[in-house]
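User: I'm new to structure prediction. If I give you an amino acid sequence, what do you actually give back? Let's try with this one:
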Amino acid sequence: IPKVSQPAAISSKCTKQGHETQELSLFCETCESLICVHCILSEHPPPEHKLLKIKETVSKYKPKIEELFEKTKSKSLIIDSSIDQVEQTIKDLESKFMKVQNEIIEESEKLITSIKERQKRLFEQLEEIKTQKKLKLENQLQQLQDKKGRIQNTLEFTKKTLDDVNNNNNGKAEGELQFAFFKKNMTERLHEVCKLANEDSEICENSEIELIFDFSDLKKSIEKMGEIFGYSKFTP
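Assistant: Good question. You get back a string of structure tokens that encode the predicted 3D arrangement of the chain. For your 236 residues, that looks like this:
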């Protein structure tokens, strides 16, 4: 809005050509202009033009102007109040912006904390499953190694006894005697380890660990997490 300048001083003389020496002594209500006595005949003849003296003009219009001035002044006070309200609202808006921004950060950090807590629990579950599986496998490994050791010892003992029979050229009777002596023991041990070997040796546990994670629902929830509303005072 352009700034209104202060009223400039006006000349009391008429500006019409040929009237420069005449005082502006009348006001033409019809044309809303100051005139001199010579202007009456040339441009403002009554009764088409309604003429007033300057004092009459002031007396007639000054109360109206004063009334309009006071009315406008009161409007100006209303505008001042509105300016104060708008300025305060802008300050409140900045304050509430910061408040909601901090709330967004706080709620997001809560979500991140929850995700980290869930991550920690999943790691714990993973470690627990791995430990259980590994314990089973290590126990089975130990049992298989023990079984293997018993079988190996029996095979080595039996092979040595048979080798003594086959390789004892000078004292064959001694080797055969030894064989006969250990025959029952070897037979029982071989039957025992064969039976042991026939026992179920299938692996008791597998290495499978799988994460089942449906991210789609969580993603949708995060995408819809929170909404920002600015409730306008006036509906456009």
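You can read the tokens as a compact description of the fold. Here is one thing that stands out. The beta strands are 26-28, 33-35, 51-53.
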